[in-house]
Every structure is written in structure tokens, then in C-alpha cells.
Amino acid sequence: MEPPSPRALPLPDGFLPPGCTFSGQDWALLARRWFPVARADVVPAKPRQLTLLDLRLAIYRMPDGIRIGRDVCPHRGLPLSAGRIEGDELVCAFHGLRFGSDGQCRKVPEKLAPKTAECFSVTMFPAVERHGLIWTCLIPHGDPEIPEISSAAGDFDASDLASIIKLRSDFLMSIENFDFSIHGITIDPNHHLSLRDLALNEYQRLFESMGPAVATHA
Ligand code: FES
Question: Which listed residue, of 12, 83, 106, 169, carries a Cα 20 to 30 Å from 98's Cα?
């Protein structure tokens, strides 16, 4: 099992993304679940933006693996997904702050003195490869809880259209049967949408955002 990416800075208690469309309680519970956010075989070195539970993230490939962090530069709040990878550093496109794999700033351009690298860090999230996909969790705790696929997971080839469609179909069925009452998550029967439905909607949206290869319904 791949170790989670280091987190330079966890999300603060009570955090909600700007413009969040979930209730605070739902978001806090869903943020503890693992979601697939990209096909592992197509994550480029160039950072790319994705949205998970209304939180904007930047995903990119570093020499030591795939990294996922908040898409917010701690200098002026501009998107890090506009930046580039140089060696083992992510370079912000706007004023040139350089960040390591752990999200900690390594170098501040002279024009920003007297600020130092210690002043800046990015919230990072784990990036775990499973079933040909990259999974992450916004409030991780313990080992990754990634749903099993009903078929043999090793049969899937993430670059193959038929495999991806089958993966999605099996995966959503797997989630349909997932017991959200375990792991301390209870479902309010009066809620207009259950947590399971919210999670299913989010999985569906994420799969569809991965491109045409996964957009066809099985
Ligand atoms: S906004 Fe990133 S370095 Fe200024």
C-alpha cells in the first residue's frame, strides 16, 4: 500500500470550501471518505485543476509520485494549477514561490523579501493508486478505505474503454451496497438526500470529469 502523501498543513477544524453546496455536517462526513479523482495513467507533470466536494485541488506528477494539494497558493491565493514542475519542485506561475512534494515552500524569490520559505505551505492530500485510478481523501484518518470492486480488481486496465466502463459500473454497485452506518457515519432519515446519495453523485461527477472514456453509461 502506498503511503499517503505528506500533509504540510491539514484543513482547519470546521473548514468549508468557499461556495460550498453541501451542509457543513454533510461535507465534514463526506470529506472523510475516499474518492477517485483521476485515471492514474493520464496524470501529467503539468498541474491540472479538479474539484472534489466543492474544493479546488491541483493534481500533478512529481519525480517521486503523484501529488494532490489545494489549488491555492499561500502567497496571494492564486491557483497553483497554473504553475509548472521544475525538477522536484512546483513553481507558482505568479511570483515564483517553489514548493516541495510535501507542500512546504522551499524558496521565495528575492522580490518577496523579507518573507521566508517557512512562511508558506500548501495543504496536501494523499494520492493512492488503486484499480487504475488515483484516490484521495480531504480529511484522512487511518488506512485508506477504498471500496472493493466486485470483480477481480486486477482485471481492469484503466487505459481501456471497456474496462473503465465495467469498473465504473461495478464500482457504483459496490458503493450502492456500502454501509454508511459503519465508520461512525449515520444517515439522517429526514435529510432530502442521504449521505450515500451525495457520495454517489460525487463519484458519478468525478468519473464523468475523467473524460469521454468513462462518460458512457454501462
Ligand atoms: S500567488 Fe503564488 S507566488 Fe504569488
Answer: 12
Q: How far is 215 from 217, CA to CA, in rounded Å? A: 6
pTM: 0.85
The residue nearest atom 3 of ligand 1, judged by CA position, is: 95
Residue closest via CA to ligand 1's atom 1 equals 76
Probe target for ligand 1 pocket from 70, 72, 78, with the most ligand atoms within 8 Å of CB: 78
What are the pLDDT digits (tens) for 136-154? 999 998 888 887 775 554 5
